[in-house]
Amino acid sequence: LLLSKWRVGKFIPLFYGSSFSYLTAYLAITNAEWGVPASDELISTMQAGILATGVLNILVGLLIKWVGKDALDKVLPPVVTGSVAAVIGIGLGFAALDMAGANWTVALITLLVTILFSVYLRNKGFIGMLPILLGAIVGYLVSMPFGLVNFDPVGAASWFVVPHITFPSFSGSMAATAIFSIAIMAIATIPESTAHLYQISLYVDRTAEEMGREKYELDKLIGFNLILDGIGDFINGMLGGCAGTNYGENNSLMAITRNYSGPVLVAAGVISILLGFIGKLEALVGTVPIAVSGGLAIYLFGVIGMQGVALMVENKVNLFKAQTLAVGAIIMIIGIGGNIGYPGGFLPIPFLTGLFPNGLPAIATAAVLGILVNAIFLIFKPPQD
Q1: Are the C-beta atoms of 290 and 35 separated by less than 8 Å?
Q2: How many helices (H) and strands (E) does the chain have?
Q3: Which pLDDT does position 17 carry in this prediction?
Q4: CB of 97 closer than 8 Å to CB of 342
Q5: Is the distance from CB of 51 to CB of 238 less than 8 angstroms?
Q6: What backbone torsions phi and psi does residue 148 show, to the nearest 5 degrees?
Q7: Which of 19, 187, 280, 290 has a Cα at 20 to 30 A from 62?
C-alpha cells in the first residue's frame, strides 16, 4: 500500500495475505503433518522457493508493463491457468481427507454447516462474509463433547511472544525442487491477483463517479500490482512467511462497507502484524482440532479446484478444440496423478538428480509442460476445427 502510494500517487486498496495455492508444494517439500512443526532446515529450504516466487511475480509484472497483458495471455491462456488451479485444489484432496479422518463425525458436521452458511448467508451483509469462520466455530463447539479440545496450551502460553523467524537456505538437497515447485505456482495466483485488481477497480471507479470525482483506473496498474505482490512474497521468503496473494473476500467486504480507504487498510495490516505477537492467540488457534480443520479443508480445497474450472468457463474455453483439450489433459493427468502417486517427485532425470534427488515435482512439471505444448501450438498453428 505504501509503495503504491509512493510510486503512482494512489493506494491500491488490496489486502495481501498467505495463499492456499502454494500448500501442495509446501507439503511436498516439508512433509508436514498437522500439529507437528516442520524443522527449521526444511522451512528454510521452502523459503528459497518463496523468494523465487517473489522474483517471478516481479519479472512478470515488468513484462506486462513492457509488452501488455494480451501478450502474456497468449503464453498463459485460461486453459493453462485454470487447469493448474484445478490441479492444485484436487492435489490437496488427500491431505484434507487425512485430517478429516481424525474424527469423521466432527469433520462432516463442520463440512455441512460450512456449506450451508456459504450458500444461505450469501449476500447477507457482513455476516455473509464469514461462512468459514462460522463453520469453524460450530465445528469447534461440536468437538468439545468428544474431548478433542485441550486448553492447557492456552493457559501455559505467554501473552507476548516474538514470532519465530527463519532465513532462506539454498544449500539443501531439496533447494532446487523447492524453487521449481513453489515458484511455478504463481501461474495460479497471477490471474487471481489480476482478477481482484479488476474487481476493486470497478468498485472504486463506480464510487468515484457517484461522488463526482475522477476515476482512479486501477485496472491499468496490472503490472505494478504484480510487482508489489512479488515484493511481498520476497519479504515473506526472507523472514519465514508464506507466499501470498490479495484477498477477494476483502474486496467484497469493502464493497459492502463502501470503504476503500488506503489508510484503513494500512491500519488493518499493522493490526494483523501485531496479532502475531500475542502468544495466547497463537495457542488458542492451535487448539482447533484436526478434524475441524479437515472438514473445512474438504470444502476449501474443493473450492480451489472448482475455481480453476470456473476460470475456464468464464473465459469460454473451448474444450472441443484438439489443442485446448491436449493442453488441459497433460496438466490434469501429470499434475493430479503425479502428485498423488509420487508426492515427493516423479520423472527422475539422471543428469538432474543432484538438483532434484526425488525427481521433478509433479504439479510444477505439469504446468511447464502445459505451457510448452501451448507454445508449440502458438508457433505451429494447427488447422482450424
Answers
A1: yes
A2: 19, 2
A3: 84
A4: no
A5: yes
A6: -95, -5
A7: 19
- Are 370 and 335 in contact by the 8 Å Cβ rule? The answer is no
Amino acid (one-letter) located at 183: A
Look-up: residue for cell 509442460? 369
β-sheet bridge partners, residue 346 = 360
Which of 168, 180, 185 minimizes the C-alpha distance to 352? 180
CA distance 75 to 293: 37
Residue type, 307: Q
The three three-digit cell numbers of residue 22, written as one number: 502454494
Question: Which residues touch 218 (CB under 8 Å, ≥6 apart)?
Answer: 10, 12, 197, 200, 201, 204, 205
Q: Residue 5's pLDDT band (boundaries 50, 70, 90)? A: low
324: closest CA among 87, 86, 89, 81? 81
C-alpha distances (whole Å) from 372 to each of 75, 76, 85, 361, 365 are: 9, 10, 17, 16, 10
Q: How far is Cα 38 from Cα 32, in angstroms, rounded to an integer?
A: 6
- Radius of gyration from C-alpha coordinates of the chain: 21
Record the cell numbers describing residue 303, joined without a space: 473450492
Q: Per residue in 141-170, pLDDT tens?
A: 999 999 999 998 888 889 998 888 899 988
